[in-house]
Specification:
Layout lengths: L4 H10 L19 H15 L3 E8 L2 E9 L13 E2 L4 H14 L28 H5 L12 H4 L5 H6 L18 H15 L3 H13 L16 E5 L2 E5 L15 E2 L1 H11 L9 H7 L13 E2 L5 E6 L4 E7 L4 E7 L1 E2 L4 H13 L10 H25 L1 H8 L4 H19 L1 H8 L15 H31 L1
Parallel strand pairs: 4-11
Antiparallel strand pairs: 1-2, 1-10, 3-6, 4-5, 7-8, 8-9, 9-10
Protein name: CubicO group peptidase (Beta-lactamase class C family)
InterPro entries: AmpC-like (IPR050491), Beta-lactam-related (IPR001466), Beta-lactam/transpept-like (IPR012338)
Keywords: Membrane, Signal, Transmembrane, Transmembrane helix
Length: 476
Amino acid sequence: MKPKVLKLIGAALAAAAVAAAPASPAHAETAPDPEAYDAYLTDLVEATDVPGLSAVVTRGGETVFAAGYGEDSNGDPVTEHTPMRVASVSKSFTAMAVMILVEEGAIDLDAPVADQLPGFEMADPRAGEVTVRQLLDQTSGFSDTSIDVVELEDATSLEDYVSRLADDSLAADPGTDWAYCNANLNVAARLVEVASGQSFADFMRERVFTPLGMEDSATRDEDVMPGLGYNSLYGVWIPREEAPGFLDDSGSGGIITSAADMGKWLISQNGEGTQLVSAAGLDAMHTASDVQDYGMGWSVESDGTLAHSGNLMTYNAVEWIDPETGYGIAVMSTGAGLSDVTWSAMEGLAAITEGGTPAEPSSSGQVYDLVLLLATLAAIGLGVLGMVRSRRWAGKRAGRKAWRTALRMVPVLVPAVVFAGFPAGVSFISGGRTIPWNQMFYFALPLTLTLLAAAVAGIAVAVARAVRLKSVVSAA
């Protein structure tokens, strides 16, 4: 679950290549023809070569468009009923579960979590002040910088997950700062279990999915079996098991659902159809906190719309609603690469709902892959060439001062230094999120392999030069 990481990397790779969408009127006077959505998505899937994608558009109390494109890992056509992981889109579902119990009096939204959740404690006295609301709007003080989120990924249940927080601390006083941290919503999911007396899976099925008619949805693989997601290997999509981590019953990213079911969810989120909480409760979830434009599982955009992306290692997803017009959009993809196709698709579909023309679907992801492939081959070639020429290099520098020779070795070792700091760099540009090494070999696979090739080539050249230099000196 790495929100904004894909968009930031993609922007860094080719910010100048992104075309701006044409200006659109504020709102369409008449509803767009569903064929406009289909034509746009067909072009987008062809341009991006994403292996599988599904999307839904709702307006008011109706689903006006739902479809799937491509094939799943079993070779079956993707449809609006194909279950996919939606990653951090799950956070809005967990917030809804909490709000249901808040309105029933089983949870106090503005009371400390510690008073309502036995077993919740941290190695920081400020943790006793964290409220349920602060978990949902991510102003609790939880942060990847002060919590060992890698250790949490090995948890076997929500109860185990919460117990592992005992030796962690907060990065800020509760309610004073915002930091995106999955621990917030997983603690909230455990609170749902304790307050309801049900497992998170049972509560979501009985109190959220069933009332809304979401028949393709669950919180566990064993209940709804999604196919494998994909990663791009220099433009070739390869099916892969999702990276190991805490997914089953995860409140931060465990929901598995379909485009058809997301349509029912979006209708309810726009205040139409079956309602799970009061209008006031829904409004509270859609209202930003005092310190960040983020509500309870929803980012509050500057134009009044609400959205949330979801990024796993092999799946991407996004949800979007416009409370003013009543439109809702969800897009889900079985492919996770350096650019997020689902976010681009959502923006294009939103432009169509407004009566405008979406930006031309971009094949920038394929361009990134080609450039990285060429860079990888160049790194290997230069490495081989450097090793072949190492004898001549050593001959020219025999007898020179050692420090000057050492300086001449520095440039070929720079790629190794860059590669060693790669996860830390990605974590930095993603706002402090912890991105461990194993995740670098999923969504960022082509870039990781390119940097690895350059690092290995540089080290090989440096070693060859050192060996040759020693031989020349010894011979002299």
